UniProtKB/TrEMBL annotation:
EC code: 1.13.11.20
Top-level taxon of the source organism: Eukaryota
Organism, as annotated: Oryza sativa subsp. japonica (Rice)
PANTHER family, A to Z: 2-AMINOETHANETHIOL DIOXYGENASE, CYSTEINE DIOXYGENASE
EC main group: oxidoreductase
Assigned protein family: Belongs to the cysteine dioxygenase family.
The name this protein goes by in its record: cysteine dioxygenase
Amino acid sequence: MRVEAGGLPELGSGARDPAGARRQRRRRQQRRPAMPSAGAAAQPAPSPAVQGLFEACREVFGASAGAVPSPAGVERIKSVLDSISAADVSLTRNMSYFRRVNSNGIPKITYLHLYECEAFSIGIFCLPPRGVIPLHNHPNMTVFSKLLFGELRVKSYDWADASQDSTDAQLQGARLAKVKVDGTLNAPCATSVLYPEDGGNLHCFTAHTACAVLDVLGPPYDDGSGRHCQHYNVSSSAPSAGDSKPLPGDDGYAWLEECEPPDNFHLVGSTYMGPRIVDN
Ligand SMILES: [Fe+2]
């Protein structure tokens, strides 16, 4: 999902839209690695794990002409992520990030920003138990997700007709999607990868326990470049009775319609305090 501001104070419910949060952060911190604020505790020195991830991303996405790196590049980033642990980014499941709830007891999701440039971004989503990141897309992006700890339910989709014009889909009111993943991840597990047209480009996460998800997005969300983070609902019916595309195979497909971020989705930013990234 879309990354949010590192080094910023909590953004409150106004940051439910990760795209908006990203725009805020981009204005304040373009191409700068996360740094401690004045008076904050010193951020740990670079570590081989985090620095190695950054350098792999820089080389792979820097050499990629489009949104999808070469197969060798994908394997390189996957391999680096597979070897990273929560300890490498100074996270433990007893941290306050994994206990945050709003006044109604709804879990808040915390985003820790590590790095962003035009080619890629790195960040961590911290989910308390029962925390939900609702269904959203990653247009023209490749996304790597490494579950650092916890038990996470994942449901993802790809568009059944990836060539369909999104404007037509909007006019239709809903668009047919095929279920890609409907299951539960238990850390330690392999890094997941999604692509612009397959791998589960639209997904939602539900935390069964406290979970930390390290995400690499290439390239990052950017409204100006057509990479807008859009949320979706699963529609209970096809767009119209006369639609020529019935649900093939029933439960393997769903009609998705665009929606605003749910009111109970609270995404807040906190300062990443793990080993810093050196961009030189
Ligand atoms: Fe996502």
